[in-house]
Amino acid sequence: MKVKIGNYPNRLQCGIHTRYMEKKYGYVDWPEYKQKGLRIKAQPFAEAWREQAENIIQSIYNFTINLFLDRRVQKIKIHIDRWDTWSMDHTLAPIILPMLRQLKETKHGAPNVDWEDVPRELRPSGEELHAYNKNGETDPKFFERWDWVLDEMIYAFDCKANKDDVHMRFEDQKEIKKEQKRISNGFRLFGKYYEALWD
């Protein structure tokens, strides 16, 4: 097997206002400049001119170089040998495993995780659920649930890629069933949350 996947095509973005605001206020706490009663809160000059400049420069980018850049596609070259599908689950495991590990280290968010997929201690209490649903916010264990799901996926693929068969590692039938159940659940979670595997 040979796989070569290039970077995602991207376009030119002018970020002089965005970078300034993120540095000054962070990513989410930007002030709103709107009418309050009869008074209008004025936007500071340093923010206003950067916002105007960013809009103008971005428009120029969009009508010039981005017309070309938007036509590019991601370069992907894949060659599959006959033996790659003899035991495809083993072939894919060493590829998926480091990707899952990197995703866990670099992720910037988390999807909704169904509570039945995580242990009870990671589920919100009734009070937490009511309080956070009311405000539209995430509960304190929201990101922990996704970390747990990723850990279970990583465990399953690590077993497939790096460890011998379950029957070789355990002699007790109860331990074999328990281990196989965990591995199978990790693969189930991988399938269920496949479309949530983004950074």
Describe this structure in words.
- By secondary structure, the protein is mostly helical.
- The protein has 2 domains: 79 residues, no CATH class; 111 residues, no CATH class.
- It has 8 helices and 4 strands; from the N terminus they run βαββααβααααα.
- A two-stranded antiparallel ribbon has the order 1-4. A two-stranded antiparallel sheet has the order 2-3.
- The protein is flat and about 75 Å long.
- The two termini are 26 Å apart.
- The model has no long low-confidence stretch (mean pLDDT 88).
Q: Order of SSEs, N→C?
A: EHEEHHEHHHHH
Low-confidence stretches: none
- The total strand number stands at 4
What structural class is derived from the secondary structure elements?
mainly alpha
Short account of what is shown:
By secondary structure, the protein is mainly alpha-helical.
Which terms summarize this structure?
single chain; mainly alpha; 199 residues; two-stranded antiparallel sheet; 2 domains; 4 strands
Topology:
Blueprint (H helix, E strand, L loop, with lengths): L1 E4 L10 H10 L9 E2 L2 E2 L4 H19 L1 H5 L6 E4 L8 H19 L19 H10 L6 H21 L3 H4 L3 H20 L7
Antiparallel strand pairs: 1-4, 2-3
Helix pairs in contact: 1-2, 4-6, 6-8
